[in-house]
Amino acid sequence: MKVSRRVENLPPYLFVEISRKIAEKKAKGEDVVxxxxxxxxxxxxxxxxxxxxxxxxxxxxxxxxxxxxxPQLRQAIAGWYERRFGVSLDADKEVLPLIGAKEGIGHIAFxxxxxxxxxxxxxxxxxxxxxxxxxAGGEPYYMPLVEQNDFLPDLDSIPAxxxxxxxxxxxxxxxxxxxxxxxxxFFNKVVKFAQQHNLAVCHDxxxxxxxxxGYQPVSFMQAxxxxxxxxxxxxxxxxxxxxxxxxxxxxxxxVMVDALRRIKSNLDSGIPQAIQYAAIEALTGIQDxxxxxxxxxxxxxxxxVDMLNRIGIETKxxxxxxxxxxxxxxxYTSVSFATxxxxxxxxxxxxxxxxxxxxxxxxxxxxxxxDAGLTKGLSRLAEWSSTKSGLRTKK
Length: 395
Ligand SMILES: Cc1ncc(COP(=O)(O)O)c(C=O)c1O
Description:
This protein is of the alpha/beta class. It has 14 helices and 12 strands. Helix 4 (71-85) runs parallel beside helix 11 (273-284), helix 5 packs parallel to helix 6 and helix 5 packs across helix 10 (254-267). The chain is globular and about 60 Å long. The model has no long low-confidence stretch (mean pLDDT 95). Pyridoxal-5'-phosphate binds next to helix 5.
């Protein structure tokens, strides 16, 4: 049997490789501490689960859902954006629930990318932006995110011949994997740039609620004219520890939202309704879980950043996201360093190159690891570093 070239050419999904390596080690009876995938370790808040269980008992929720989601869920999403960012949305035309943000990110390429078209994607970046572009027959153009530019893309350096073919501009702040943040000035500049070059902007913002030290991120939808040029993907995964329930949303430009609705209505039959009711509870119910989770992540962030700097790995403290983006010591690549940590210390980190060429020279550590594992992982790092003389990162 011969699979399509489309499938043949797919790069292996980054975390599949990591999971395989961990499983291999565990099968050999080795104990591995993983700072790999960004999957919240704390449970979904109990009031959300209670609502889910209650809704699951109702036979009305056992049938096919509408693919555009319950009107009450779309209203809850619009209400959340209003309260959270002061952004008004039409719940019928400018809001669409998704089976997790990843699903919408994957499918929107099919709405705007024809063979030969270009999508501008951040490098390093969440791999789905480029993979979905390729699946739709397009080409990703990688915009380097470098530290000297605060991990923001240098839009003015994109060549004119690329811009001519570009249809989509992908952005993601607070950023995975760098932990960088963007302000409203940057988003205002993005809107002007998109208008100038006729680009549809897809901003991906699932980490807007995972913030530290009182930092308040902005939504792309707050930028002047954002709704005319783009949409924002969001998710309940990281805000409410709901990765396993698969629910997210896209909001903004009604033409873009409608295009995605049309593609989706041909491919999926919506989100199980009990999960939609749980999402309504999460978005409209008591929000204190967010502060509680962030306090835990902030403590872990401080421990990780402190330890890495102590052992000679230069690391800045992120204001948001679940990730610490750390430089690789001299003499290593991101893969050789991650491999050394796995083989010699039993600690899993993600090599930066997995997120794109500009991720080389970095590793990513996720903070979604229970405190006991985190402490064990950090002491393993300290012990491992004591066997290496003069570990230090390039200036
Ligand atoms: C930047 C980014 N976008 C989207 C997602 C996917 O979110 P969801 O669980 O809603 O599909 C992730 C998950 O890690 C992510 O890091």
